[in-house]
Design a protein that fits this description.
The protein is built from 8 helices and 10 strands. The protein has a 10-stranded mixed sheet, with helices on both faces. The protein is globular, with a radius of gyration of 20 Å. Helices cover about 40% and strands about 20% of the residues. With about 280 residues, it is of the alpha/beta class. The chain has 2 domains: about 130 residues, Rossmann fold; about 140 residues, Rossmann fold.
């Protein structure tokens, strides 16, 4: 038997999106050979009669998925914290986690998780990547999209994306997006300057140089590189239409600065039409 590693922690509230999160976690558990820890998330002072049955159904489904994939030895455990906020419970029970996985929407405290406190709190404070699962806009999409700006945070995102693309044999698109400012212009809507082709060519060449080592390490991964003078929220959101997931780093520079606290993270989490992974 292979040695088990840190668990994948799933916040579960019985919603359809948290069911998707369980399915995503089972696939990831197979790839990484990680046990799964289901955390039943409920409102304070609430104990819905249906939740224990739904949690058990989710556990059985994850176990069956692992059994079919040949990982019957991987355990799927359930924890039901009481008398503490969901974000605090998930952080406490995920202190040793390999990944934290949430559904994009749900019942009770997870309802509208992307715009609420749970996913934002976890993304700020978790010590591991946070995965927010949603139904993809394109059900046939396999492509992984990752935002890159040469910061340490985006390097972590690229590492995660390359490993996932290698494991799943999915194509990978690496996007460097930036807000273009023509000389002497201000405001939200600005004309493109005459130097934009040279600027794009320079940024693309820098992106190629930055990715050379990763492509050498993962020669089997089908990689596309894109340097676009468009705000990262827009370009990553547009790319999510035909992506299985979008991966972003927890910190960045330029338009990505303060990713978890500013408009880029909120924009990607709100607007992306695929699963979003925030790496650390």
């Amino acid at each position: 038997m292979r040695e088990l590693v840190n668990p994948i922690v799933v916040g579960y509230d019985g919603s359809a999106d948290s069911d998707r999160a369980v399915d995503w976690a089972a696939s990831a558990a197979h790839l990484r050979h990680c046990p799964i820890r289901l955390v039943a998330v409920i409102e304070d002072d609430a104990d819905p009669d249906w939740l224990p049955d739904r949690v058990e159904e989710a556990r059985e489904r994850a176990l069956e998925e692992l059994r079919v994939r040949g990982d019957a030895e991987l355990p799927v455990t359930v924890m039901k914290p009481r008398s503490e906020p969901a974000s605090h419970a998930l952080l406490r029970l995920a202190s040793d986690a390999h990944l934290i996985v949430l559904g994009a929407h749900g019942h009770s405290v997870l309802d509208g998780a992307l715009s609420g406190s749970v996913s934002q709190h976890l993304a700020r404070h978790a010590e591991c990547p946070v995965v927010v699962v949603r139904e993809t806009h394109d059900p046939n999409a396999r492509r992984i999209v990752v935002g890159f700006d040469d910061s340490p945070g985006s390097q972590q995102a690229v590492a995660f994306a390359f490993e996932m693309a290698h494991d799943t044999k999915a194509p990978l698109t690496i996007i460097h997006g930036w807000r273009y400012n023509a000389n002497g212009t201000v405001g939200l809507y600005m004309p493109l300057g005459s130097d934009i082709p040279e600027h794009v060519a320079s940024e693309r060449a820098a992106l190629q140089d930055a990715m050379r080592e990763w492509q050498d390490k993962y020669p089997d991964v089908d990689v596309q590189l894109s340097a676009v003078p468009v705000h990262p929220v827009r370009v990553l959101t547009d790319a999510s239409d035909h992506a299985a997931m979008v991966v972003v780093g927890s910190r960045g520079r330029g338009a990505f600065t303060g990713l978890l606290l500013g408009s880029v993270s909120q924009g990607v989490l709100h607007r992306a039409r695929s699963t979003v992974v925030v790496t650390r």
